[in-house]
Amino acid sequence: MGIIEKIKEIEAEMARTQKNKATEYHLGQLKAKIAKLRTQLLEPPKGSSGAGEGFEVTKYGHGRVALIGFPSVGKSTLLTMLTGTHSEAASYEFTTLTCIPGIIHYNDTKIQLLDLPGIIEGASEGKGRGRQVIAVSKSSDLVLMVLDASKSEGHRQILTKELEAVGLRLNKRPPQIYFKKKKTGGISFNSTLPLTHVDEKLCYQILHEYKIHNAEVLFREDATVDDLIDVIEGNRKYIKCVYVYNKIDVVGIDDVDRLARQPNSIVISCNLKLNLDRVLARMWDEMGLVRVYTKPQGQQPDFTDPVVLSSDRGGCTVEDFCNHIHRSLVKDVKYVLVWGTSARHYPQHCGLGHVLQDEDVVQIVKKKEREDGGRGRFKSHSNAPARISDREKKAPLKT
Q1: d(Cα 286, Cα 140) in Å, to the nearest integer?
Q2: Cis (ω within 30 of 0) for the bond into 347?
Q3: Which DSSP state fits 153?
Q4: I need a labelling partner for 325 at 20 to 30 A (CA). Which of 15, 27, 65, 337 fits?
Q5: Whole-angstrom Cα distance, residue 173 to residue 189?
Q6: Rounded CA gap, 336 and 325, in Å?
């Protein structure tokens, strides 16, 4: 029996099992088995040489955004509208067969936009090259899920389910669970608050399913069984997602109003070029890019070429800013002067731990190189060798 058949068999067993107190341990074990099988499904087959054919393109710019959706929902048209890069669009499905990158120039930054082929139901199992498409979206900073406003609401649930099946968690944060494997000592289970979804027995059963018999588990929030399995697997990617409803020009105003009020959603029309500027503004807000301008000592700030930081790519502190310029700069920093919204007064003397905000101006003051031992008559020691044996011996006197 193959892995896909095993997954379907376990899903069928979960569907016919009643959910109550008596069966929660059994359902928890089944969820752990499915997670293990899906991880095996993503691994390359044994004996395969080299990497398979994929859609991966070189990272470029300050951020990466992936367009995901069913075929013929307007992904290629949206890419052409936002970037100017031509991506073939036609009235038949699967027009785009490979990954087509484009660059958005917005607020002095460069954002890479990827037009991916349409995915279908069963993409997580490899149908329609779905695994390659989802693998590219794992390396993105933001996912734009393009949906057809005239189609049923079920498309959104199908795509979310396919992405979650391969370890992508949309608009979620990592669960506050501390987990560490140990060599000896058994399983240590603790929590800082009352738990309503998981107890010690269920945690033991899930860990034994993964053949883990020595570990330390600490719950800092009331997490579910799925959160615990995600932490044990350790290969989950938590990514932001914006649901973009295209083709609003073919539905009524009541439907447009209902879709626009849903969380993390935005409505557009590529045909009539409606609300495209709001898509760019929403992308900018979700990615959280921070532009920092440099100011040389005694000169005006350089507002032409900012240093772009983000919390997803390294961080937004002064230390991250220095590392972005050069790795060896941090050792030479004495203090920095900051102008902008993150400063309490202008200029503010800050250390390496200060968190920068968008459009801040930073001037780095470096340590001065001091001469060893002072200067002139204030020297603390002579230039003579430290040991007597190292001194130059004078020639003997002539007699």
Answers
A1: 13
A2: yes
A3: T
A4: 65
A5: 22
A6: 14
Entry field: residues in the chain: 399
Q: How far apart are CA 321 and CA 292, in angstroms?
A: 8
Side by side, the strands of the sheet bearing 187-191 are 177-181, 215-219, 187-191
Is there a contact between 317 and 353 (Cβ–Cβ < 8 Å)? yes
Query: How does DSSP classify residue 390?
Result: G
Per-residue pLDDT reduced to its tens digit, 300-314: 998 988 999 998 888
Tell me the one-letter amino acid at 136: V
Spatial separation of the C-alpha atoms in residues 142 and 289, rounded to whole Å? 12
Integer CA distances (angstroms), 257 to 151, 254, 261, 279, 283, in order: 16, 5, 6, 16, 21
Q: Which residues contact 51 (CB under 8 A, 6 or more apart)?
A: 44
Per DSSP bridges, beta strands 187-191 and 168-170 are unpaired
Dihedral angle at the C-alpha atoms of 21, 26, 31, 33, nearest 10 degrees? Answer: 170
Mutual angle of helices 75-83 and 276-287, in 10-degree steps:
80
Torsion region of 88: left, alpha or beta (phi above 0 gives left; psi -120 to 50 gives alpha): beta
> Across-strand partners of 364?
336
Domains and CATH numbers, the chain: 3-42+175-233 (no CATH), 63-172+237-286 (3.40.50.300), 289-366 (3.10.20.30)
Please say if the pLDDT value at position 42 is more than 60. Answer: yes
Among 344, 297, 298, 354, which Cα is nearest to 321's?
A: 354
Secondary structure element (H or E) that encloses residue 104, with its range: strand 100-106
